[in-house]
TrEMBL record:
Pfam families named in the record: Gate
Alphabetical keyword list: Membrane, Transmembrane, Transmembrane helix
Protein name: Sporulation integral membrane protein YlbJ
NCBIfam families per the UniProt record, alphabetical: spore_ylbJ
Domain Nucleoside transporter/FeoB GTPase Gate: residue ranges: 44-140, 221-317
Superkingdom assignment: Bacteria
Transmembrane spans: 43-71, 78-101, 149-169, 218-241, 293-315, 327-348, 376-400
Length: 407
């Protein structure tokens, strides 16, 4: 009982302080909200929307079920999740946060995953996409495209390790055991049958399916935009209230124990709330080596920040999937990613990339300045608002038409 009362009091006091801070720091709050809006308007919405719409279409047409049957022999032994988890994993890495959570929740609603399997899957299928790691962090913040190799490898290797650890979570899942029965000797034939049955059972016309995909995706992105703006403001207010500095004093002890500069504490605290600002502040620290900056950045990217975690929690709240395993996995991935950064630094970065001998550098997935991938990132930043505005108008038209039909 006292826990519930303490929680109520804590939440009430916290919200009151935040409301008062908005009045005390109106200019700073406005600038932070504009910064969050710009990020959502220019980058997040146009980059995530196509993945969300296509994913909904693939699920509706049964293609995800087809892929799931084929990938069952790989995903089940490694991660103890159905084969459809392979599709979620791939889409999560390609599109970034929080696509893995949205697709996992969608498949749980379709009864293609048990609750334990969904909690395992969501733990390792949420990650930063390569465009953000190489474009925004490595090139944009650090001005070093080669650093993206270490950050990406550490990030995705950490994801795999989390998946391998989480396979031991919920070992007595009865629903999972029931789904293991009935294996076929002809997986392609079984997959085709599953594809056809899924499409027939969906029973929605193509126009209705496309409309549902667009509206569902935009609703999710509107929610994501709200969280991005909210946590951008919270992060700024906590800084002006000196809460960030107070927490940084506690983290200085941990960093000192790990032989890391104490000046990294403030960027680390900011990164725990919002990964973009945390990564940018880390890149601006002067009294730390590049390897030390990479370690902190890897942890920030893997932990994903309370902003992304709040987005995931909101998506999972629509199902019976619990948030605690996801939160535990974020801490675990942060530790794994930092560890891999230390291991891979001498093996890859110092061995193949030397600023004095650029001819020995290994390729960075075509993300050097002037390449098509770097140009694509700049193009997204320029035309992103146009794409966002177009689909928001389309969403309004579809929603208005459906409300009119219901009347």
């Amino acid at each position: 009982m006292w826990r519930s009362r303490f929680k109520t009091a804590f939440l009430a006091v916290s919200v009151t302080i935040m409301a008062a801070s908005l009045v005390v720091y109106p200019e700073e709050s406005f600038e932070a909200s504009i910064r969050g809006l710009d990020m959502w308007w220019e980058i997040v919405f146009p980059s995530l929307l196509p993945f969300f719409i296509i994913s909904e279409m693939l699920i509706g047409f049964g293609i995800v079920k087809f892929i799931g049957v084929l990938l069952e022999p790989l995903m089940r032994p490694l991660f103890r999740v159905p084969g459809v988890g392979g599709f979620v994993w791939a889409m999560g890495m390609a599109s970034g946060f929080p696509a893995g959570a949205k697709l996992t929740a969608r498949l749980r609603q379709e009864k293609q995953l048990s609750r334990i399997e969904a909690e395992r899957l969501v733990s390792f299928t949420n990650s930063s996409n390569p465009l953000f790691i190489f474009g925004a962090v490595s090139v944009g913040f650090f001005k070093n495209a080669h650093l993206g190799i270490i950050l990406a490898l550490s990030h995705y290797l950490g994801n795999i390790c989390v998946g391998l650890v989480m396979r031991f979570y919920g070992r007595n899942d009865k629903e999972e055991k029931e789904q293991k029965k009935g294996k076929s000797k002809f997986p392609i034939r079984t997959a085709l049958i599953a594809l056809h049955r899924t499409r027939v059972n969906d029973n929605r016309p193509i126009g209705k399916l496309l409309g549902d995909a667009v509206t569902s995706s935009i609703q999710t992105l509107l929610m994501i935009g709200g969280f991005i703006i909210l946590f951008s403001v919270i992060n700024k207010i906590l800084y002006h209230l000196h809460v960030t500095a107070f927490l940084a004093k506690l983290f200085e002890i941990i960093l000192k124990t790990l032989s890391l500069p104490e000046s990294l504490s403030v960027p680390l605290i900011s990164g725990l709330f919002e990964i973009t600002q945390g990564s940018q502040m880390t890149s601006q620290v002067q009294d730390a080596s590049l390897m030390q900056l990479a370690i902190i950045t890897s942890f920030i990217l893997a932990f994903s920040g309370f902003s992304v975690q709040a987005q995931v929690a909101s998506i999972l709240a629509q199902t019976d999937i619990r948030f605690k395993p996801f939160f535990f996995a974020r801490i675990l991935q942060g530790l794994f990613a930092s560890f891999f950064t230390v291991i891979l630094w001498k093996m890859i970065y110092e061995r193949f990339y030397n600023p004095e001998q650029p001819s020995h550098a290994i390729p960075v997935f075509l993300f050097e300045e002037g390449t098509w991938l770097h140009s694509f990132y700049q193009l997204i930043s320029q035309i992103g608002p146009i794409i966002t505005l177009f689909f928001l108008c389309l969403y309004i038209v579809i929603l208005a038409r459906r409300l009119y039909v219901q009347k």
